[in-house]
C-alpha cells in the first residue's frame, strides 16, 4: 500500500504504521447554533480531510440545538471515513430506542458510529419529561452504565450470521442465533432481542467523558474511548492509570481503552507566541469547562506531541472555541504539521471507526466460543 | 359521491413508497431480493421514488420481533433499522421526497419525539412526516421502561394528547426577528391526563411548521383521530366500493373539527403487478402469491387463525377438521384475527367449493394484490379511484427490496403524467406543498 503513497514520507516510518504509539485525534463540531445540515456537513468534511478519528456533536435537552444523532446520520452519506459520535443521553430516554438508534447510525455510516454517553442531571430537564424527579448524579451514572450494558447486549442479540435466507426450509433467519437479553437494571428491564441486526462494527464505539468523578466507574467498565480533563500531562497520566486499573478490575484488557485529553482550543491568536508555561500545561481559566488552550496551531502541535510523547494520553479531543475558524486552523495547521512529523496518519487506512482506533471488532457475548460471530 | 371532472381542476394523485415490511408481502426468496438493512437498499428505493416524483417515502416500525408458538417468527424478513435515523440519512441523498417515519406514541415521550421530528424537518428542509401508531400490549412493553402500562381503550387518548403536545412544542419558539434565521424559545407548559411537562423546547419552528402527521388504521377511533388531527390517513380499504364508503365517511368527519375535506388525504396501501397483457399480469401475480405463501408460511397462516399447532398437517392436503381455539395466545406482536371461528368457516367453505389445499386456500384468502394489469389498465384504475372519491392517492407496497417499484415508476408514472393525473415535476420544496396541505397555524405567534 505504501508504494502508492506520495514519496516524501520516510520509508521506515509510514504514517499508517508509526513505530511509536499511534496518536488519536477527535474534534467537536457543535457550537454553531445551526439547525440545517450544511454547516455540520462542512465541518465533518473538514475534519475528515484532516484524517481525524472522529467528530463529536454535543447534545442536551437543557439548551437549544438539534438532535445530535440525527444530525450525524444526515452527515453520514456526505462523508466516507470519519467516525461519527453524537452525545446520547440515558436519563430520560428509552434504552431500547437508544440502542437501536446508535446501531442504525452504524448501519447508515457503514461502521463509523459511536456514542458519547451522557446524563441529564437538572430538575429542569426532568420537568420536560414529567416522568420522574431528577435523580442523584451517582445514580444517573449508574443507570448510564446499565444502559451501555444493555445496548451492548442488544447489539449482540443477533449473531452476525443469524440471517440465513434458507429457501429449502423457508426460513429467513436462524432463530437460534437471536437472543433474548433479559436485562434487569435498577430502573428498567429489557427483554430483547433488538429489532436491528448486529451493526457493522459489532459494537459501535462507546465514549464517556470521565471528567465528572461519578462517570469514571461507568467509563472504566463500558467505554472504548474516555475523555479526561487535566491541566498537566502528569495529571492526565494519573487519571489514565486509574481508569486502566479499574478497567482491568472489571476483567477488561486495559490496552483496549483509548484515553483522550479533552481540550478547548482557541487558535484565534494565529502564530503569536504561546503564553509562558502553556506548552506543557494548558491553563484552566476560572468558570471554564476545562483546560483551555490559547495560541497558535504550531504550538498546539508541539503541545500534543509532548503530551502524547510522555505516554500520558493516547490522543486529544479538541473543542474549537470558534467552530469554523479553529477547526480550519487545527486541520490545516496543527494536523498538517503532525502529519509532516509522521506523528499522525495522512489518510484513513481503515473503513470503520474501530479500525481507526485500532480496536478489534468485539466477539459476540451470545455466540458460542469459536463461532463465526 | 361523484365529481364532474370536466368542470373542476383535474384531481391529482398522491403517491408514496412503502419500504418492504417484515411480513409475508415481502418476498425474500427471489434472487433479486436484496438486504433489508443495508443503507444502499433504502437509498435505492428512495431514489426510485424521487425519480417517480412521489410525495413521500414511508417506513414502518415494530418494537418487538414477532413470535409464533413462543418462538421468534423466522419465515418472513426480520430486522430493520430505526426509522428516524435512516430518514435523516436519506435526507442527504434525496432533495424533494417526503420522509415518513412510523413512531409509536405509547413507548415514546412527546418532548424527545417532537424534538427528533423537528430535527428531521430541519435537516430535510421541510420533508418530515410522522405516522402515529399506538400499541398497548405487554408483549411489546417488555422492551421498555414502563412496560405494557396502557389500557387498550386509552391508546387513542394518549395519541391525541401526544400529537397536541407535540404541536405545542413545535409552536413554542417565537418567529425570527427580521434578518435572523431563528426565533427564540418561549417557555411552554402542558398539563393533561397523559402528560404534565414544562420548560423550553430546544428546536426552533421547523420549515413545515409541523411535520406532516399520518394516522394508520381504519377503526372507528382511528378515523375520528385522523379527522381531528392527521394530514394523511393510511388505510387498508382496497376495493373501489369499500374505498368510496370509507372516503365519504372519513371526510364527512372533518367539518366538526373546523377542517376542510381536502385537509386530510386518504391513501390506501396497495400493491401493483404489471404485465404486457392482462393475462401476463395475472400469471405474474399468481407467481408472486406463491412466493409469498411458502408451504411453511401456509401452515403458519393457518395456525394464526386456528390458534393451534398444526405443524403435522400437509400444506398440500386438506384443511384441518378441528375448530380454532379462540382464546389462543399462539401469536404475539401482530394484529389478532378478529373472529377466528368465522374466518375458519369461510376458509373451509372456499376450500371445499374449489377443492383447494391448505396452501392454495391461504394463497386465495390472504395474499392481497390490489391492481393487476397492463400499465395502461393500472393507470386507468388508479385514476378512477381518485376521480371517483375512493382515495386521494396510494401508498405502494412493493414485494421486492429495493427494486420493487422500478416497473411502476418506469411504466405507470409516465402514463399518469400523460393523463394529467400526476405531477411531472415537484412544484414546491416541502412535503406539505406536495400534498397540497395548508400551513399549520403558528399558535402564539401573533402575540
From TrEMBL, chain A:
Gene Ontology molecular function terms on file: monooxygenase activity; oxidoreductase activity, acting on paired donors, with incorporation or reduction of molecular oxygen
Superkingdom in the source lineage: Bacteria
UniProt keyword list: Flavoprotein, FMN, Monooxygenase, Oxidoreductase
Record-linked InterPro entries: Diverse_substr_monoxygenases, Luciferase-like_dom, Luciferase-like_sf, NTA_MOA
Record's keyword annotation contains Iron-sulfur: no
Biased composition (Basic residues): 1-14
SUPFAM superfamilies linked: Bacterial luciferase-like (SSF51679)
Endoplasmic reticulum recorded as keyword: no
Disordered, as annotated region: 1-21, 270-294
Signal peptide region: none
Residues binding FMN: 59, 87
Domain Luciferase-like: 34-269
Similarity field: Belongs to the NtaA/SnaA/DszA monooxygenase family.
Protein name: FMNH2-utilizing oxygenase
Native source organism of the sequence: Streptomyces scopuliridis RB72
Automatic annotation (TrEMBL), chain B:
Protein name: FMNH2-utilizing oxygenase
Keywords: Flavoprotein, FMN, Monooxygenase, Oxidoreductase
GO molecular function terms noted in the UniProt entry: monooxygenase activity; oxidoreductase activity, acting on paired donors, with incorporation or reduction of molecular oxygen
Annotated FMN binding sites: 102, 156, 219
Segments passing through the bilayer: none
Domain Luciferase-like: 32-390
Lineage: Bacteria, Bacillati, Actinomycetota, Actinomycetes, Kitasatosporales
Homology family: Belongs to the NtaA/SnaA/DszA monooxygenase family.
Organism in which the protein naturally occurs: Streptomyces scopuliridis RB72
